[in-house]
Amino acid sequence: MKRQLTYYPDPVLARRAEEIGEITPELRALADDMAETMYANEGIGLAAPQVGEGVRLVVIDISGPQIRDDLRVLVNPVITARSQETVESEEGCLSVRNYRASVERAAQVTVQARGLDGQDMTIEADDLLAICLQHEIDHLDGTLFIDHISRLKRSLYDKKVRKWAKQKEKALSA
Ligand code: NI
């Protein structure tokens, strides 16, 4: 089932998500829903807080949004190593409307996580996968890519967000 996305400044996006204990049928259903929601919105990654669930679950498919044959579901993912070398690239986020900005990230990361089968896995990532993993794991700690941009750019974006909220209010009351 496709879920409703949460949008900045929804507080669920700013909270630290909870560690997952047991892998239950409900958790599997949530992972299915998240993959469906990610694909429906043409994303390449989605974290549980983006569908309003404060748990440490991430789905990623960097073959998307076209090919969609490389789905990874990560339970409690942790970055255990990051390269000194960094890369800068333009990022966007399904929960941050109408905005993209350049963000600096580690060029390579090592991530440990559990799969839905309960098995531990280690991912050595570079390029787009490394960026995507850092972006999604940030979500689990209540951090958005706009938390990595300059204060000036951020305040300009926040101003726009407040304007859109006001316009919406007006439209609803009209
Ligand atoms: Ni995002």
Give your account of this protein's structure:
By secondary structure, this protein is an alpha+beta fold. The protein has a single domain, classed as Peptide deformylase (Peptide Deformylase), CATH 3.90.45. Helices cover 30% and strands 29% of the residues. The chain has 3 helices and 7 strands. It has a 5-stranded antiparallel sheet. A two-stranded antiparallel ribbon has the order 4-5. A hairpin with a 5-residue loop joins strand 6 and strand 7. It is globular, with a radius of gyration of 16 Å. The termini are far apart. Nickel (II) ion binds next to helix 2.
Question: What share of residues is helical?
Answer: 25-40%
**CATH architecture label:** Alpha-Beta Complex
Number of strands: 7
> In CATH's first tier, which class applies?
Alpha Beta
Q: Count of helical segments?
A: 3
Strand content: 25-35%
Strand order of the largest sheet: 1-2-3-6-7
What is this structure, in a nutshell?
This protein has 174 residues and is of the alpha+beta class. The protein has helices at 25-40, 127-140, 151-173; strands at residues 45-47, 57-60, 72-82, 86-93, 96-106, 108-114, 120-126. The longest helix has 23 residues, at 151-173.
Write the SSE topology.
Elements: H1 25-40, E1 45-47, E2 57-60, E3 72-82, E4 86-93, E5 96-106, E6 108-114, E7 120-126, H2 127-140, H3 151-173
Antiparallel strand pairs: 1-2, 2-3, 3-6, 4-5, 6-7
Bound molecules: nickel (II) ion.
